[in-house]
């Protein structure tokens, strides 16, 4: 309370110097008795201000560390989930491609079997046209081989394209996550720096007021 009264008196001294001379003349007798108590209160208030600044800085550092740890853990969890999802998608795509290839091979085998059966029946029925049947058989086998090769090449190209696209998506997601982590960390550090600077400025201003009061 004495410190507050001294601060108000100092402010009034600055605003009303003439009246301050009268107050000073009238209160010269009481100032000698309260000088010791004002000096002790100013020293205790300055020490309490230092303790408050230290506590605020420690709390700010702890908050920054906790926020950074939480953000990093969340980003790691997101990266793990994204990688797991991408791996599952790649495995499912590969399984689907293998199943498609097997189905195509089964169809080709069935077609070949049917063609061979037809050729055999034609051979049995039409013995006279043996040369024509041989030519037809060779042409059919050639067509089947060409179809099989084309189908296998197309499936392989599709699988490679899908895998490349998935890898690009994973890289883009990882880069975006890293950028978000960096932005969040920089923002948190900036906020903490601003808060610490404001607290230090407030503490410094409080110290100036106490010094002025002790001089008065």
From TrEMBL:
<feature type="transmembrane region" description="Helical">
    <location>
        <begin position="138"/>
        <end position="167"/>
    </location>
</feature>
<feature type="compositionally biased region" description="Low complexity">
    <location>
        <begin position="26"/>
        <end position="45"/>
    </location>
</feature>
<dbReference type="InterPro" id="IPR000515">
    <property type="entry name" value="MetI-like"/>
</dbReference>
<keyword id="KW-0472">Membrane</keyword>
<dbReference type="GO" id="GO:0016020">
    <property type="term" value="C:membrane"/>
</dbReference>
<feature type="transmembrane region" description="Helical">
    <location>
        <begin position="50"/>
        <end position="72"/>
    </location>
</feature>
<protein>
    <recommendedName>
        <fullName>ABC transmembrane type-1 domain-containing protein</fullName>
    </recommendedName>
</protein>
<dbReference type="GO" id="GO:0022857">
    <property type="term" value="F:transmembrane transporter activity"/>
</dbReference>
<feature type="transmembrane region" description="Helical">
    <location>
        <begin position="173"/>
        <end position="197"/>
    </location>
</feature>
<keyword id="KW-1133">Transmembrane helix</keyword>
<feature type="region of interest" description="Disordered">
    <location>
        <begin position="24"/>
        <end position="45"/>
    </location>
</feature>
<feature type="transmembrane region" description="Helical">
    <location>
        <begin position="105"/>
        <end position="131"/>
    </location>
</feature>
<dbReference type="InterPro" id="IPR001734">
    <property type="entry name" value="Na/solute_symporter"/>
</dbReference>
<feature type="transmembrane region" description="Helical">
    <location>
        <begin position="77"/>
        <end position="99"/>
    </location>
</feature>
<keyword id="KW-0812">Transmembrane</keyword>
<feature type="domain" description="ABC transmembrane type-1">
    <location>
        <begin position="105"/>
        <end position="216"/>
    </location>
</feature>
């Amino acid at each position: 309370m004495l410190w507050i009264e001294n601060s108000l008196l100092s402010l009034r001294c600055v605003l009303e110097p003439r009246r301050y001379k009268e107050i000073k003349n009238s209160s010269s007798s009481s100032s000698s008795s309260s000088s010791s108590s004002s000096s002790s209160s100013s020293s205790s208030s300055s020490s309490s201000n230092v303790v408050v600044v230290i506590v605020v800085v420690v709390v700010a550092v702890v908050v920054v560390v906790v926020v950074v740890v939480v953000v990093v853990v969340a980003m790691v969890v997101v990266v793990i989930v994204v990688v797991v999802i991408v791996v599952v998608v790649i495995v499912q795509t590969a399984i689907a491609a293998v199943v498609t290839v097997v189905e195509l091979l089964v169809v080709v085998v069935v077609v070949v079997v049917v063609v061979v059966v037809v050729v055999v029946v034609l051979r049995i029925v039409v013995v006279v046209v043996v040369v024509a049947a041989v030519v037809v058989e060779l042409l059919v086998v050639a067509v089947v081989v060409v179809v099989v090769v084309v189908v296998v090449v197309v499936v392989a190209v599709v699988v490679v394209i899908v895998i490349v696209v998935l890898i690009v998506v994973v890289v883009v997601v990882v880069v975006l996550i890293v950028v978000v982590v960096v932005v969040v960390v920089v923002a948190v550090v900036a906020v903490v720096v601003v808060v610490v600077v404001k607290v230090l400025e407030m503490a410094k201003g409080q110290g100036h007021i106490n010094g002025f009061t002790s001089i008065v």
